[in-house]
Amino acid sequence: MQLKLNEYITVNGEVLLYCGQPDLSRLEDLSKSEGDLWHSGLQQGLRNAFPEVIYQSSVQFWYIKDFENLSDCISWRCNPEAFVVRKAVWEQLGGFDSEYGNPLVAAFDFSYRLLRYLGGIPKHIDDLFPANLYLQPTLSAYDRYQFFKKNFKTSHSVFMLFRCGLWNPKEVYAFWKTRNFKVKSIRQGIPARPLAKLKEYPSVSYIIPTMMRQDFTRNLLDDLSKQSVLPTEVIVIDATPNLDVAVAYPQENYPFKLIAKQQQSKGSCRARNEAIDLCTGEYIIFGDDDIRIPNTFIESHLSFLKTYGAEACNGLDIRADHQQQDLHDLEQKLQKYEQENGVRAGATSCFSNANSCVLRAVVNRLGGNDVNFDGGYGEDSDFGFSITKLGISVLHNPFAVNLHLKPPQGGYRYWGLQAKKSGKARKAQPWELGKPVGRIKPVPSPTIMYGIVKQFSATELREYKIKYMVHYLISGNKLKFPLRVLNLPYKFLQFKESLYYANRLAERKTN
CA 220, CA 293: separation in Å to the nearest integer? Predict the structure, then answer.
């Protein structure tokens, strides 16, 4: 495909390339945003084109389906005849892959890889291009398998063949014909932009929910007291029973306003919501109690958001080998991480309450954390995905780094661990809503299932179920495959039980 690319030079001297007829008056502002590629594909017939990509990742990737009712949002369904891209990004990635015979698949491949693997951000912008440039997206079976072979492990192509019909000659032939394509390298990613120096810093509220981990929390408070940019306030919500928080966290020890409150409710989501209600800062940083942070941590979050013109980001979470490690160990681990992965930003498809920074106005729009996740898992991803569905890009910030100690004792998982017990020794879980688990243990976690029911469609839930069961059958010791086949009906019952609790949570009003 011969592309005719024109140049637009911004006032800062950056070169943007464009194909088609964009509204040139908007390019200056777009160049200052977090995006790297812009198009109007969702207005031009490309919304949710290539639905078979769901066979690779049904609910684990936020951007499988396009968002509804958003004029500005992340989308990789780019029109090959109408787009704008940063010249540096285009040249570094080598443009569209010439091996694709279909230019539409080449454009999808470029923008999908940019988003998922390479640290770049493709965005749909309403009316950037004329909406009357309407396409009828047509992808052959060969196009689909070629895309899969170049972007995913072969097992995903096999799964798509299974879902699209092993009995279909066209599918079988396309799968065979693309057998020699290999997964492309993802090492040549887009480096993160240099952080801008800020002349003044906005106010920051730092939230720490904790339980039975006072020593770890005090270590984090000490790290916060050494920040190059101090938080305006730190809010500690401690759920430890019978604790005098004023004694545990004396205000006079710290150079910022410290609000320490004993939690009366149960659950980390409720704890964060209690803290959010007390926040006054322009930004909120969410942190776990078992992390250590270097003295540039807060400054890195604020500078990153300013550099990208963004409102929400995740920091880089580095797992410790054991809970005695400290910031010296973090330096060594970070050097190794950067050597292996580079320093990339881009849009994330996950969220971490251990290390994230969000404009408080955005948090208030969401109304805080969904308390239906208390006692289980999945609240982080739900919070981040909910931000994304507002049309706000959640970015990965490689500069704001923490060391996650993950001690085996204490913390809010104390309640969640009860779910693994049975009989009289088991304490009631919040997600049970007064109906204790019986003889069939719900698997996956009901709160994980609730997140899927809440955020995804029935089609995506069905694909998740199919892939979950297939993965159960084919993973593990091959000699035990017959036993897994015999156990499959019970797995279906467990899945059904999990879905039952998830649907009850979905019906509950949490306000």
Answer: 7
Q: Measure CA 49 to chain center.
A: 22
pLDDT of residue 413: 59
Q: What is the pLDDT of residue 511?
A: 47
112, 186 Cβ separation under 8 angstroms: no
CA distance 283 to 348: 19
Three-state SS letters, 288-300: CCCEECCCCHHHH
Cβ–Cβ < 8 Å for 269, 379: yes
Asked if 319 and 239 count as a contact pair (C-beta separation under 8 A), the reply is no
* Beta carbons of 317 and 355 less than 8 angstroms apart: yes
pLDDT tens digits for range 10-61: 999 999 999 999 999 999 999 999 999 999 999 999 999 999 999 998 888 9
pLDDT of residue 186: 81
Residue 145: how many CB atoms within 10 A of its CB? 24
- Per DSSP (E only), the strands in 1-76 are 6-9, 15-19, 37-39, 72-74
Segments of the chain scoring below 50 in pLDDT = 511
C-alpha dihedral over 317, 323, 328, 334, to 10 degrees?
-30
> Is 205 exposed, middle or buried, given 0-12, 13-18 or 19+ CB atoms closer than 10 A?
buried
Report all structural domains of the chain as residue ranges with CATH numbers, in order of start.
6-140 (no CATH), 204-404 (3.90.550.10), 421-507 (no CATH)
The Cα 371–Cα 380 span in angstroms is 11
Query: Apex CA 54: angle with CA 117 and CA 377, to 5°?
Result: 75
HSE-CB at 10 with a 13 A cutoff on CA atoms is 19
What CA–CA distance (Å, rounded) separates 296 from 303?
Answer: 10
Separation CA 7–CA 9 (nearest Å) = 6
The DSSP symbol for 157 reads H
Strand 122-125: give its sheet, edge to edge: 6-9, 15-19, 83-86, 37-39, 122-125, 72-74
pTM (two decimals): 0.93
Q: Report yes or no: 232 and 258 within 8 Å, Cβ to Cβ.
A: no
What is the pLDDT at residue 472? 94
Q: Which residue is it, tokens 């240099």?
A: 194
The SS3 of residue 492 is: helix
3-state class (DSSP) for residue 332 = helix
- Rg of the chain over Cα atoms, rounded to whole angstroms, equals 24
Per-residue confidence (pLDDT) for residue 476, from 0 to 100: 86
Q: Is 184 exposed, middle or buried (0-12, 13-18, 19+ CB in 10 A)?
A: middle
State the virtual CA torsion across 162, 441, 61, 340 in degrees, nearest 10.
Answer: -100
Comparing C-alpha atoms, which of 364, 442, 352 is closest to residue 402? 352
Please state, in angstroms and rounded to a whole number, the distance separating the CA atoms of residues 458 and 498.
15
Q: State the amino acid at position 186 in one-letter form.
A: I
